[in-house]
Design brief:
The protein is of the alpha/beta class and 305 residues long. Helices cover 32% and strands 21% of the residues.
Length: 305
């Protein structure tokens, strides 16, 4: 008999009191604000549905890490079944903004295909610079695997996925951590040191750029960190398989082709889907979410076997 969500939530709750920061009104990277920016250019755009499907349980506000009184939380979306493969989603927002709710529509569509899904919050650059967010996501993966029995998931079949900054974080956390078999990088950087990435992320007119704020300095000031945070630096045999899904704006996927070439040379499975007419943040909206989900499901079924 399935465990009621309230009982499961209580069983998994943290033992010490802690808090999340209150919502920041300046943090406007969400579907509603992004829709307002894109609707004029893309009249066909629709915010993707986030209603909980019948038969899917939500286990909300689970504390997966705690720093003093500071909580980091996640939400799990669980279809019926046992030993389910699971995808942990990392939201975007330029390392400085965004919410874990960003990936709820995609998470729910995966639950209809038999996958468990988890959306996580992590420390943004205004609170903690690189590599805090990467370590947070790796902690979330450990928490999910440690609670596999309660969540009815298979701890051997874990994937990471993310969009924009979340795609880069998911890729980096996956290739430098443990327990991840596959990664989906959606419009996220693979190489901060590439000419294309530096053109935008090291632009002297941005003081600082989103990446510069995360690293605590421009490229010339923090060369080692810009390099260290680039997933392309960790290509090796045995690393997780990776699917790249990109918009029509190459700047957000800088280094992708070079990383895929290195992965192929190393014998690591990789694939890509490009949606040439899609804007950045396309995973928040129909009509682009559906092909994103279709490609992700096909990839996950192959590499989370």
């Amino acid at each position: 008999m399935p465990v009621p969500s309230a009982v499961l939530a209580a069983a998994l709750a943290a033992t010490q009191p802690c808090v999340e920061p209150p919502p920041d009104p300046a943090n406007t990277y969400d579907a509603a604000h992004t829709y307002d920016k894109l609707a004029g250019e893309y009249p066909q755009i629709r915010i993707a549905d986030a209603a909980l499907p019948e038969g899917v349980r939500k286990v909300a506000d689970q504390v997966y890490a705690q720093y003093g009184a500071r909580c980091l939380k996640l939400d799990a979306y669980l279809p019926a079944g046992e030993q389910l493969p699971v995808v942990v989603f990392v939201h975007g927002g330029g390392w400085k903004s965004g919410y874990r709710s960003e990936f709820v529509p995609m998470a729910l569509r995966l639950t209809r295909q038999g996958f468990a899904a988890v959306t996580v919050s992590y420390r943004l650059s205004g609170e903690a610079r690189y590599p805090a967010a990467v370590r947070d996501v790796q902690a979330a993966v450990r928490w999910v695997r440690e609670h596999a029995a309660e969540l009815h998931i298979d701890p051997r079949r874990v994937a990471l996925a993310g969009g924009s900054a979340g795609g880069q974080i998911a890729a980096l956390a996956g290739v430098t951590g443990e327990g991840v078999k596959a990664v989906i990088n959606i419009d996220g950087l693979s190489d901060f040191t590439s000419a294309l990435a530096l053109r935008y992320e090291d632009d002297p007119r941005k003081n600082p750029s989103s990446a510069g704020a995360w690293f605590g300095g421009r490229y010339a000031e923090q060369v080692a960190l810009w390099r260290e945070a680039s997933p392309i630096q960790y290509v090796r045999p045995g690393m997780p398989a990776m699917l790249f899904i990109g918009s029509g704006q190459p700047r957000f996927s800088a280094g992708r082709e070079e990383m895929m070439a290195k992965m192929t040379q190393a014998g690591v499975a990789n694939d890509k889907l490009i949606l040439p007419d899609a804007p950045h943040s396309f995973w928040l909206f129909d009509p682009w979410l559906e092909p994103t989900v279709e490609a992700s499901v096909a990839f996950l079924r192959q590499y989370l076997r």
